[in-house]
Protein: Recombination protein RecR
Amino acid sequence: MVQTTDSVTRLVDEFAKLPGIGRKSAERLAYHILRVHESEALALADSIRTVKQNVRYCSQCFNLAESELCSICQDPRRDQTLLCIVEQPRDLMALEQSGMFPGLYHVLLGRIAPLEGVGPDQLTIDALVDRVRTGKFREIIMATNPTTEGDGTALHISNLLSEMPVSLTRLARGITTGSILEFTNKEILADALSGRQKL
Ligand SMILES: [Zn+2]
Structure:
């Protein structure tokens, strides 16, 4: 960018902070915004504002929600005795898209990663243990990612829950080790769910 204004520079700086967006792409996006109709550009600004103001975590399962409970926790048709543990809301989304899981979820909001300084306390594990302690669940499915950290997290949780009268299972290894749930296609996810194994 040769000649520009302060506001344009600011917009480029903001775009450049986004993941996967380099300086050149940020400049392209900024020029795109300058070119489009004002209403289109403001719709983008407004959707960012709305998401930041309205979206929070479900108080029960830590999925994304726009009220106290997420749409899944509010749905009486979901099987209240099945609980699937995932790392992130986007993993939950991937499983939902497989259309194979009728139960409820618990989102950890991360995984135990000692090298990055993420310990069990920074996840929603305490809330999970409290939920399971109610005795409502007959089966708990570990659907953390098949990575070293995802496996370690599943192991930590299964140790915590081992004394409780509930069956613990893990997604079958249809998913290639190291691949991430959100990028796995829904047929493979559906197979992994139906072939889940006892821990
Ligand atoms: Zn929820």
Notes: The chain has two domains: 6-54, 81-171. The pocket of zinc ion is lined by residues 58, 60-61, 63, 69-70, 72-73 (CB under 6 Å). Residues 38-54 form the longest helix (17 residues). The longest strand covers residues 79-86.
